[in-house]
Each structure stands twice: as C-alpha cells, then as structure tokens.
Backbone:
C-alpha cells in the first residue's frame, strides 16, 4: 500500500511515477512501477502512521469502480514490465502470483450482484501466461487454485491431466533407460 511508505519526491519525479488516470487501483500500480525502477528501501521499526478505518472508505465498502478496475491495472503493470524488459523469470512469477491472488481476494468482498460481471472481467483478463502458471505447480494457496479451476472449468483440468500424463510417461521412460544402463554395466562387470 502506498501509505505504508515515505517516497522521495525526486525518485517519483525522475522515474515519472504518477497515479494513472482512469479506474485503476493506484496502490498496486505505483508500487509495481516503483519496484521496476529499483529503489533503495529502508525499514523503520517505529509506528509512524496511524490508520483510521471509517465506514465510507474504499476498503471498507469496496466500490464497483475500484474492484472492476483491477484487471485494467494489471494490464498496465504487465505493459510496463514488458517495456522495461522485466517480464521474465522471478518478476513474471511475482506478477502472476500478485494478479491471481488479488483477483481472488476481490471476488469475495464484492456484493453478490456484482460477482458475475467481475468473474467475466477476470476470465477475459487471463491469458496464456496466467493459465500456464495455474497449470504448473506454484505457490498459490489451494483455495486460490480451486477458485481458478472452477472459473476456467474442465479445460484447465484436462490440460493439467495431460501435463501430468506426459510427465509420468517421461519418468517411466527415464526409469527404463536407467535400468537398462545399470543392467548393461552389471553384465559388463560380471563378464570381466
């Protein structure tokens, strides 16, 4: 969250870090854009900020505009990561984890009458990177994986089963080759 940090204004200005215009989730966007710029961090153990919760806050009663803007925010973040050459390896995994867990969390705080529209937005924003991330073992919590398994339906389950069967066949082929090599070495040693 933005309010958990003190920012040097020169860092923000030099790196053109600003709140995006539109229905975006500013905290997520600004944190990602700042991380790409490789800032220096210092952790202070003192409590310097006292957060006041009030009934009309965006987090207490999340607005449709706020939550429906999340897919667009993550699209913008991915664009920045691609443009800066940071969409690979650990960055990509961190981005996908953040996106998928954020969408999952938002779904459960939305009012019932907005959930269907939100699910449509989430499903439309899941590309091949997200689906591949979901297919392979990752560090998502089980409830998050179940959420996406349900959302994506049988297609994901079939793909996961296919990957499992391919890996199982490879493992069996490897085991057979290993056993054949061991057998040949044993026979050569016995004949000497």
Residues:
């Amino acid at each position: 969250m933005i309010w958990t940090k003190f920012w040097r204004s020169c860092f923000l200005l030099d790196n053109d870090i600003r709140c995006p215009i539109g229905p975006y989730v500013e905290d997520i966007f600004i944190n990602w854009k700042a991380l790409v710029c490789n800032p220096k961090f210092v952790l202070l153990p003192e409590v310097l900020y006292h957060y006041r919760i009030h009934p009309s806050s965006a987090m207490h009663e999340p607005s449709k505009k706020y939550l429906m803007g999340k897919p667009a925010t993550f699209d913008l973040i991915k664009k920045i990561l691609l443009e800066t050459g940071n969409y690979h390896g650990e960055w990509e995994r961190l981005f996908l984890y953040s996106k998928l867990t954020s969408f999952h969390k938002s779904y459960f705080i939305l009012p019932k009458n907005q959930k269907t529209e939100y699910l449509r937005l989430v499903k439309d924003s899941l590309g091949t990177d997200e689906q591949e991330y979901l297919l392979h073992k990752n560090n998502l919590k089980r409830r998050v994986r179940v959420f996406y398994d349900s959302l994506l339906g049988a297609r994901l389950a079939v793909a996961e089963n296919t990957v499992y069967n391919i890996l199982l066949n490879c493992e069996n082929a490897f085991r057979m080759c290993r056993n054949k090599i061991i057998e040949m070495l044993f026979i050569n040693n016995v004949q000497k």
